[in-house]
Amino acid sequence: MGATGRNASLKRPVKAKTKRLWPIRVVLAVAAAVMGYALLMVRLEVTQEGYRLSALRLEIEQLRSENQRLRLEAAELSADQRLRFLAPKYGLQPPKPGQVVIMK
Questions:
Q1: Per-residue model confidence as pLDDT tens digits over 39-50
Q2: Distance CA 20, CA 84 (A)
Q3: Half-sphere exposure for 74 (CA within 13 Å, toward CB)
Q4: What's the mean per-residue pLDDT of the chain?
């Protein structure tokens, strides 16, 4: 009975410790689940922002290309030779002496 009594007394404190530790284990499990969920949400946000950034880079490249095309078109439309060619069609001619006044 001495050995059985000793084993019985040893088991009781282990059960008592287990009973006291279950709230801590539950809290740790919940904390781990919350941290996992938070990590998942952060990774999802990073992925979405990466896609958005790629789309914005593509849009920037398209706008730069369009800007270059429009600048070229504006330069062609305002070229001196083109304007001299179109001037007679609209009744325009070089200014006569005295028509141009330079203000200082």
A1: 999 999 999 999
A2: 97
A3: 6
A4: 86
The residue length of the chain stands at 104
Higher pLDDT: 65 or 9? It is 65
Q: How far is CA 15 from CA 12, 22, 43, 46, in A?
A: 5, 11, 41, 46
What residues make up the domain containing 49? 2-75
Distances (CA, A) of 36 to 4, 28, 48: 45, 12, 18
pTM, two decimals, is 0.52
Is 17 part of any domain?
yes
Count the domains in the chain.
Answer: 1
**Residue 81 token pair:** 């030779």
Token pair listed for 69: 């095309």
C-beta separation of 82 from 76 below 8 A: yes
